[in-house]
Amino acid sequence: MKIVGVGCGPGMLTAAAAAAIAAASLIYGSARAIELARDAIPPGAEVHEIEDYRALRSLPDHAVVLSTGDPMLAGLGSLPGEVVPGISSLQVAFARLKIPLARAAVVSAHGKDHARAIAEAREEVARGKVVFLVADPAFDVGALAAALPPRTRLAVCENLGYPDERIAVGTAGEPPAPRGELFVVVAGAF
Length: 190
Fold this sequence. Notes:
Elements: E1 2-5, H1 15-22, E2 26-29, H2 31-37, E3 46-49, E4 63-67, H3 71-74, E5 82-84, H4 89-97, E6 104-108, H5 114-126, E7 130-134, H6 141-146, E8 153-158, E9 166-171, E10 183-188
């Protein structure tokens, strides 16, 4: 099996990812991942929207699984098989904000315990790291802000790579708010 990162937005499919997809006869992915990879999917390939993520481990060896962003960030990179990296929301957010990746501490709150993610983010900011927090639509940016010193910088990065991309920067004392469901949060001294 190959797990292929399709990038976090349109036009972010790498040449290696496009080649892996173009050689595939059996493809699985979320609706968004399939759309991002649409131009690379060969005619006649069998394409399935993922309905049960637990069943992915039982796919045949020739299957290609599409992962939004990079499979190793908070995606499907733990599946067995070769991983073809993609352009992640971490890379795009830090590039837009001009923050070196070496300063990053990744915290996932996507489908996980938000309180624990907030506590982990607070610890990383206290250590001097710039936190990249993978959020889900229910994540409360205000709760994160309340856990940080008021002057801590916060950025809400939405729809990265899409035409309606939005990056709002504020502080924990005056936090930016997400307008949509597809966002990540950057927190720290940047």
